[in-house]
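Good morning N.,

You mentioned wanting to compare the apo and holo forms, so I went ahead and generated the holo version with S-adenosylmethionine. This is what I fed in:
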Amino acid sequence: MDKRDDFDIYVVTTPGLESALCAEMTAAGFTDPQPGKGGVNTRGGWTEVWRANLELRGATRVLVRIGSFRALHLAQLDKRARRFPWADFLRPDVPVKVEASCTKSRIYHAGAAAERITRALSEELGAPIADDAEIVIKARIDDDLCTFSIDTSGESLHKRGHKEAVNKAPMRETMAALFLRQCGYDGHEPVVDPMCGSGTFVIEAAEIAAGLKPGRSRSFAFERLAGFDAAAWDALKASATLTAPIMRFHGSDRDAGAVKMSQDNAMRAGVADWTDFRRQAISDLTPPDGPPGLVIVNPPYGGRIGDTKQLYALYGSLGKVLRERFHGWRVGIITNEPALAKVTDLSFLPTGAPVLHGGIKVILYRTAPLA
Ligand SMILES: C[S@@+](CC[C@H](N)C(=O)[O-])C[C@H]1O[C@@H](n2cnc3c(N)ncnc32)[C@H](O)[C@@H]1O
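and this is what came out, ligand included:
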């Protein structure tokens, strides 16, 4: 594996959550993180790449720039791609695929560019080419400059590796983690999700409190790159310091299937001891004993599940229960319609950018501690 420690690293996230990921990366000690469109730039060597994959809760995938050259036409692209030091990064026995994009360049046909690079790579390195290859080389030709990046993650990082059961509209773990962060959650207060679905918020909150690394149960594409140092990687994974949280994390849902799903997911994630899930309608919700903390919830969305009149009533009763029973608690509500947030009659702080979730734009509405 190339021993350089000055790669440009691009950590992809859900558009709209770049600054939240940037804050997470700053707190985690990454070098000079700078938010861009759909991700955050940083620099570092393979240890930082591994660490970004293993530890960043808000990252969707981690791309490493491995080199670039100018290419004004396809013959030049072909020649320079053949001279590229592929063997520093890729193994000849591991399938690979190339994806290309072209902007503002004389080479404008992405398909033809991908085809040239693929041929050069396979003929020079000898690696098999496969459409479903876990190793993906991204070639970006921008302003006649061709830049190669490796996707070091493989499967999207929101797949932590312990959730099997999902409901109709699950929140992605990566988004849930960044919404928790935007609500000021740092692992030291109780969390309640009264419409918990598959339990995503409650499980993420418990993992954060326990110091469990989000990537601990899964594998990554970088494990199949050339010169991968398995012993150093095992040492990094083993370096976690776990703490049994003193707080408890509570989920409820009116749907018995959702409750069972959440319990199973919490068990697989190793946080069952600190979480509880119960079947309960929002009207029966009461705060748990102990200090106040954070209520975070994404109720059914408008225009997706359920009918509009019922939704207004549901958001209305959610707001009423929180206002009457949850003094001192902060609230975070994720929804897609400002009018639905408004009927809760809660006083919201200024909102941030909309975030694309499963094809719809959602917004996090946050409150200060309720009076
Ligand atoms: C959009 S889903 C939440 C998804 C969840 N955040 C996850 O990651 O899986 C909304 C949930 O609200 C629940 N729900 C709807 N009306 C409810 C009510 N009156 N009381 C409690 N739960 C309710 C539904 O059963 C559903 O699981």
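DSSP finds ten helices and 14 strands in the chain.

Happy to go through it together on a call whenever suits you.

Best,
F.
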